Amino acid sequence: MEKSIAKKSEVYQDCYQNVRKKINRWAKDGKLIKKTGKWTDYFIQYLLILPDLVHLMIKLLVDKEISSLYKSYILIALAYLVSPIDIIPDFIPITGFVDDLLVMVIILNKIINSQDKNVLNKIKKYWAGEQDIFSQVKEIVSVLNELSSRIPKALYNFIKKKS
To answer: pLDDT digits over 90-99, tens only?
Structure first.
């Protein structure tokens, strides 16, 4: 039984690593920009932490020491992630997961900003990603803020050109 679980874990990790390599190759070859536009360059590396974020959220969700308030936030994020109704449909390559990532990061940022020492320690404990989770969340929120400040101007310019 234990070997079976270990074998499945290896398969999932291999799948994740293969997807990561493919995305990095597409980014280097410029294929992503051709398919999705330049704005996705911001999110390519961030999208690769999505599985780690899901893992973290599930670990926090089943932890008995995490308050029900934080668990409700986590449930909202996970429900959005698995929901077939998205702002950007998941069947669109790469860009379909940007909204999932943003929802996860916004929820996690809200939890981090609570400054609850117990929760912050649990986040550190459960984080399986390679880089520091707190700096990555801060960076993604910063990029999100930058992009959101550009969206109204882009929409205005688009409408103005159509008129």
So the answer is: 666 666 777 8
Q: For 43-72, what is the HEC assignment? A: CHHHHCCHHHHHHHHHHHHHCCCCCHHHHH
Q: What is the pLDDT of residues 11-67, one digit of tens each?
A: 445 565 666 667 667 666 666 566 655 656 656 777 778 888 988 999 999 999 999
Q: Whole-model pTM?
A: 0.69
Tokens encoding 107? 């929820």
d(CA 6, CA 8): 5
Gap between the Cα atoms of 76 and 66, Å rounded: 15
Q: What amino acid is encoded at 107 in this protein?
A: I
The type of residue at 14 is D
Residue at 85: amino acid letter? I
Q: Please state at what angle helix 98-113 crosses helix 68-82, rounded to 10 degrees.
A: 170
Give the chain's radius of gyration (CA, Å): 18
Residue type at position 104: M
**Per-residue confidence (pLDDT) for residue 90, from 0 to 100:** 66
Measured CA distances, 89 to 10, 12, 102, 143 (Å)? 29, 24, 14, 21
